[in-house]
Task: structure prediction
Amino acid sequence: MDKIKILKELVYTFGISGFEGPVKEKIKKLFPQVEFKEDRVGNLFTTIGNKGKRIAFMAHMDELGFLINYVETNGYLRFKPIGGWDVRGVYNRVVEILTEREIIQGIIGLKPPHLSKNKELEKVLNWDDLYIDIGVENDQEARRKGIIPILPARLKNDFTIIDGKYIVTRALDDRVGCVLNLLLLDEFLHNSPQNTITLVWTIQEETGLRGAQAFTARNSFDEIYVLDTVSAGNLPWGNFHQSPARTGDGPVIRLADRKGISSLKLRDFIKEIAQKNAIKVQEIATGGSTDSAAAFEAGLNSIPLCIPVKYTHSQVEMMSIADYYNTLKLLLLISIE
Result:
């Protein structure tokens, strides 16, 4: 399985928080020979093997997006943010709206500087100032295109490789974790694991870890590794005290965040494996949270193992390809110990 191609396919697949259906269908289509299960809230999972430790690898399917909540009489669309957006990152962008029939494109535009007063140029806009223009003249024309409340939308994506070293795209958080699960699955289909491995793709992490909370409340494992991203601090302003992770320096053990401390036992286990196999890892405390917090609150031994990413929650999330490959290598080693 081509590691870059499959990642590109998944980040291009529509699936904002709460509307992850297309991502689930894509995963199932990639492995038609696998028996996937779906729980009552929409988490997707499959189990391979029936011996040794019960290990789960968990990644969330959802991405940031918007909900169309109102169609103005003049045809402009009002919308609400879904997930942890920075409003400055959505100005003058192309938007994709998922209707029942097709994807409709529009733009989130700004008043041009030629027509703006100085005080307008200095203003930081809020969500109520923004709208989506889909190129229609009135609400009836919008409805003929299938535009009605409530529809999911997202910013249109690009996928760029810089100097053969970095991938830049939207939704690396957390489609890269989803793809790591797929690459593990591909390996396990060819080489049966020595432990009982459950691969989990959760819903609605960006809106409160809701899928992971439901899944871990009903399922028990010896170890849970949450595959996610973490904000890298190697940027011009150098805020390493907030997130001392660097792109290119290897997978990140995200030991502590605002939800608490993860498993020290699993931390030591990961570091031992990494040292034995000459894989460089980073260990940090940072803000935010991951599905690991939901697992820990359910009384399960859990830790996030993350890929450092610059510019998280933006259209230009930037990841080291070497970190991506080394994280996969580490996960495969974890699965056989």
